[in-house]
Amino acid sequence: MTDKKWLVSIALIISVFGFLLIRFASESSKIQYIVDELKGEKEQAFKGRHIVLIEQEQGHPYWQLVEKGATEAAQADHIAIECIGPVRNNMEEQIKLLEKAIASKVDGIIVQGLNDNIFTPVINKAVERGIPVLTIDTDAPTSKRLAYIGTDNVEAGRRLGQIVVQTTGGTGKIGVIIGSESAESQLQRLSGLRSVIDEYKGLQIVDVRASNISMMEAIQQAADMLQLHPDIGMMVGTSATDAFGILQAQKSLKRDDIRIAGFDDLQETLDAIRKGEIEATVVQQPYGMGEMSVHLFHDYFQGRTLPSTQFTKVEVIDKSQLKAERSP
């Protein structure tokens, strides 16, 4: 490794260390509980209806909002809810938790359909055993799930593409960081983004890499991409921590010419938009997804028929909107 690469690597580590330390401290109290859940060592007695929300990654800011919406709705609807998920993003662990929920004979399951081929058979297994399933955030459309609640991810990707066009004027090289190469929602967003970019001959996506829903990985992948493609003028991220990770790489490489757009409204992202460091972000409604999912289960338990799809809205937030929010 050259001296320059060593310096870049060290700078990346230092820039993110403080951020990760704070986040680790805030989440560490949850780890033992999650480990106990994964080992099956915690047993809880539930009265009445008992449903399970299986998250992609417990402690992740996005899924904390989903969980908050679900738990508050469950309290209002007098439903017991158990929120579980891998400590780190792990599809195999999610499948194990889904199997555990089936074995526990819960009254309902809320889960992502991250990979239709992998999740559909297990979702169908639950339904065939009399356990209704709702998919959230990412659908498994060929499964026997009752309904999907979440973003229209293709349209959300198109909204991200429109930000790129407005920012670049329709010309330039684009780098993309997606949350996962296996999550259908991420691939749908990429598809929507490409559909807009392809309408402009002057725009080109030169590289696409996955962060695996990891801040550190987003930083490293963005840094590698910018060094490999120094002619990139704008980078976009399609999951919650990607844009902020891109920003850390941009700062470490002193590439102030790079424009950035992202997904979701983490506080770090919003603060960067206020400073003019990130152009805009496409915002989903994770709280609303969790809330709506539980309310739909409540309706189902009351004998009501559910719509097969419930899209939650998305919006674009930029600096002008944040300034307007602060105005008297």
Automatic annotation (TrEMBL):
<keyword id="KW-0732">Signal</keyword>
<keyword id="KW-0472">Membrane</keyword>
<keyword id="KW-0812">Transmembrane</keyword>
<feature type="domain" description="Periplasmic binding protein">
    <location>
        <begin position="53"/>
        <end position="304"/>
    </location>
</feature>
<dbReference type="InterPro" id="IPR025997">
    <property type="entry name" value="SBP_2_dom"/>
</dbReference>
<dbReference type="Pfam" id="PF13407">
    <property type="entry name" value="Peripla_BP_4"/>
</dbReference>
<protein>
    <submittedName>
        <fullName>Substrate-binding domain-containing protein</fullName>
    </submittedName>
</protein>
<dbReference type="InterPro" id="IPR028082">
    <property type="entry name" value="Peripla_BP_I"/>
</dbReference>
<comment type="similarity">
    <text>Belongs to the bacterial solute-binding protein 2 family.</text>
</comment>
<keyword id="KW-1133">Transmembrane helix</keyword>
<feature type="transmembrane region" description="Helical">
    <location>
        <begin position="6"/>
        <end position="25"/>
    </location>
</feature>
